Amino acid sequence: MTGSTLTVAGLGKQYPTPAEPLVVLRDVSLSLAPGLALAIVGPSGSGKSTLLNILGTLDHPTTGTVRLGDTDPFTLPEPALAKFRSQHVGFIFQDHHLLPQCTALENVLLPRIASAAKADPAAVARAKDLLKQVGLSNRETHFPGELSGGERQRVAIARAMMNEPGLLLCDEPTGNLDAANAQAIGELLADVPKRLNAILITVTHSTALAATFTHKMQMQEGHLTSL
Hints:
The protein is an alpha/beta fold and 227 residues long. The protein is built from seven helices and nine strands, in the order E-E-E-H-E-H-E-H-H-H-E-H-E-H-E-E. The strands form two sheets. It has a six-stranded mixed beta sheet, sandwiched between helices. A three-stranded antiparallel beta sheet has the order 2-1-4, covered by helices on one side.
């Protein structure tokens, strides 16, 4: 679903506690067009990761709506929601979550294999091209243990792009990298939306990473505001 607008309206999230509900998100609204890269900064506990989990349909909102294009994923039954997530959302985490027993190429192919049971020649060609785009065409047959931290994160970015998702979500993607690798990954991420005509949202503590994005917002005590 590349080329789709993300619309979030009145999003709220709270969790029950013995005393009173714990409010994590408060009336979050935003609208992002395809091709846009947004960095969300804020302290720990401000609600950044909770927002990302809801946008990625890993968690449900208490109030409000999320729409990608014409679809509100939370109106879908669970099997359809899982299919929507695999086809239209890409995830990039602080820890790359690569499978250690798979090569770089096999790791990039995983989203296609999960949805199609096997990788066809076109999928293999796309995975090879994605590794080339992230500068790893010479590392296709290497296992994660044979790659540096920056290289493993590049493989994770290529994997997230495999199904051409309309929405890419990054949770502290440079948190485990040194300054040089963090800058390189930040520049690579900022360019991804243009390549896919997709939306990329990154939550981070890093002001250096946020500075590589043209659009920035701040999360504080559950509120999302302009920065």
